[in-house]
Specification:
five-stranded antiparallel sheet, two-stranded antiparallel sheet, DNA/RNA_pol_sf, RT_dom, Reverse transcriptase, nucleotidyltransferase, RNA-directed DNA polymerase
């Protein structure tokens, strides 16, 4: 492995001492994982459906003695999967009971095909592929906790999950040597079996804001066929595709929703990697 012999700090000054380079790396991740707090979540949380039943909670908080010889996080992840099958919006989200995430890919292509071939009136349609920057790293724990509580998860289960994600610590490794340990204030550990499910719970916050806007009549989605329901968005891990009218008003609505989701969840939209597809000229 090639050794790192120099590194620039945030002022562009080259540092060659290992301690200085370690401080640059450590400061970057400390800042990334530092909690920025959550904004006013009252509106978002009020729209989240409470779908976790008492029977589901009893399964989730069952005694774990029989699993002592297994990897406990995988056991929790399996239970989470069964619960989430019933509480995530099946029409829009990445988790669809009995279906694969690739089904969303096929649906997205079907919608885009329909948009290309549809006869337009004065208003066109648009699809926005949104990329989340540092997806797992920016998840605010307090927002995740609020979402789980609103969905109806048992308090003891929520406490268990919060212990799993908040007791982690990190250390920067430079040229094979681990340095000072630090504790994050937000973040979901990538590679952990729980993290994809926890992230989808956070993403349900974005689905909620889009659904509320649709129910209030200020946002219109796109149909893949004449009889299909309107689709306002599809989720794909750290990507999201939004569908709506290609108007200045439609763009402003999406912008407002994304900003509110950013403030509540800690997520940050990477606009450089986001792309827009228009089926006709904007109005």
């Amino acid at each position: 492995m090639n050794r790192i012999r120099g590194m620039e700090d945030n002022k562009g000054i080259l540092k060659i001492e290992e301690e200085d380079m370690e401080n640059i790396i450590r400061d970057y991740f400390v800042k990334l994982f530092e909690s920025k707090g959550v904004g006013n979540t009252n509106y978002l949380i009020s729209g989240v459906n409470r779908n976790i039943t008492e029977n589901m909670n009893q399964l989730l908080v069952a005694n774990y003695k029989e699993f002592f010889n297994k990897i406990i996080s995988k056991t929790i992840a399996n239970k989470f999967q069964k619960a989430l099958d019933y509480c995530i919006d099946p029409a829009q989200s990445a988790i669809v009971p009995g279906r694969l995430i690739t089904d969303n890919v096929l649906l997205a292509y079907e919608i885009l095909h329909s948009m290309r071939n549809k006869r337009m009136g004065k208003k066109g349609l648009m699809a926005l592929k949104i990329d989340m920057s540092k997806t797992y790293d920016r998840v605010e724990w307090d927002f995740l906790k609020q979402m789980m509580a609103r969905m109806g998860f048992d308090e003891s289960w929520i406490q268990l999950i919060m212990k799993c994600i908040s007791t982690v610590s990190y250390s920067a490794v430079l040229n094979g040597t681990p340095w000072k340990v630090f504790t994050p204030g937000r973040d979901l550990c990538q590679g952990d079996p729980l993290s994809p499910f926890l992230f989808l719970i956070c993403s349900e916050g974005l689905s909620t804001l889009l659904r509320l806007a649709s129910e209030e009549g200020i946002l219109r989605g796109v149909k893949s066929s004449r009889r299909s329901p309107q689709i306002t968005h599809l989720l794909f891990a750290d990507d999201c595709v939004l569908f709506g009218e290609a108007t200045k008003k439609g763009t402003k609505i999406f912008e407002k929703i994304l900003k509110e989701y950013e403030v509540c969840s800690g997520q940050c939209i990477n606009y450089r990697k986001s792309t827009v597809f228009f089926s006709s000229n904007t109005t």
